[in-house]
């Protein structure tokens, strides 16, 4: 009987420690791999063909419109406008939320929960729908700030800052390989995004390109660029 009791205790301890080990492994799951140009290219080439009609339905079913608006223009400046956004960029962002690469603040956590049940086909459909919508335009277009326009068109060689236009276009229309459109974007969203990059809190950029760029900007330059792109 004593031998049986000891055996049962041994089994119980083994189960306890195996359960602890499993739980510990679950807590420390490896983070999603950071993007490299080659891996991003492969992901975008594998993106399914998007169905705009189904994307519109998903926009309602998944309650995307509650934050981003029925027409892709956010009802408040706290959330990004997605109307007219490049398909590649929207698709990549949805992948990043689902993989955990985007988890820098409470908004990201809300998005991660929203995209958890989405398939890659769902993501491609939603991205196609948003790309089909007319982009938001500022109602009042102020003259471009000279300092901001210099950064957009020329960059700053003394700080090794490449022109913003080299990726995002002079008018903020976006570029290749998931470089987003910035034209008409909320100034608050732009400033928050650049500040997160600058502080090292947002890390889903390819080869840390945006983090390195933002780290060299002053807060005033970020504000000037936000106003510049909002008014395009």
Summary tags:
232 residues; mainly alpha; Cytochrome Bc1 Complex, Chain D, domain 2; 2 domains; 55% helix; globular; disordered N terminus; signal
Quick rundown:
The chain has 232 residues and is an all-alpha fold. The chain has 12 helices and no strands.
Task: Give an overview of the whole structure.
This is Cytochrome c domain-containing protein. The protein has 232 residues and is mostly helical. The chain has two domains: 37-132, Cytochrome c-like domain (Cytochrome Bc1 Complex, Chain D, domain 2); 146-230, Cytochrome Bc1 Complex, Chain D, domain 2 (Orthogonal Bundle). The chain contains twelve helices and no strands. Helix 5 (87-99) crosses helix 6. It is globular and about 45 Å long. The model is unreliable at 1-30 (pLDDT under 50).
């Amino acid at each position: 009987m004593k031998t049986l009791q000891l055996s049962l205790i041994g089994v119980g301890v083994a189960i306890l420690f195996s359960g602890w080990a499993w739980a510990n492994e679950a807590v420390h799951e490896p983070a999603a791999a950071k993007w490299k140009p080659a891996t991003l290219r492969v992901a975008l080439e594998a993106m399914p063909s998007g169905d705009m009609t189904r994307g519109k339905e998903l926009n309602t079913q998944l309650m995307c419109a509650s934050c981003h608006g029925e027409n892709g223009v956010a009802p408040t400046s706290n959330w990004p406008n997605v109307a007219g956004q490049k398909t590649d960029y929207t698709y990549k962002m949805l992948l990043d939320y689902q993989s955990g690469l985007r988890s820098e603040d409470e908004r990201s956590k809300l998005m991660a929960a929203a995209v958890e049940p989405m398939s890659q086909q769902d993501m491609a459909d939603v991205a196609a729908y948003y790309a089909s919508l007319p982009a938001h335009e500022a109602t009042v277009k102020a003259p471009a700030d000279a300092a901001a326009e210099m950064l957009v068109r020329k960059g700053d060689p003394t700080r090794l800052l490449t022109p913003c236009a080299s990726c995002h276009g002079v008018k903020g229309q976006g570029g290749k390989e998931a470089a987003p459109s910035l034209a008409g974007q909320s100034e608050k969203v732009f400033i928050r995004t650049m500040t997160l990059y600058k502080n090292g809190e947002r890390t889903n950029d390819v080869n840390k390109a945006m983090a390195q760029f933002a780290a060299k900007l002053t807060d005033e330059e970020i504000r000037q660029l936000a106003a510049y792109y909002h008014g395009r």
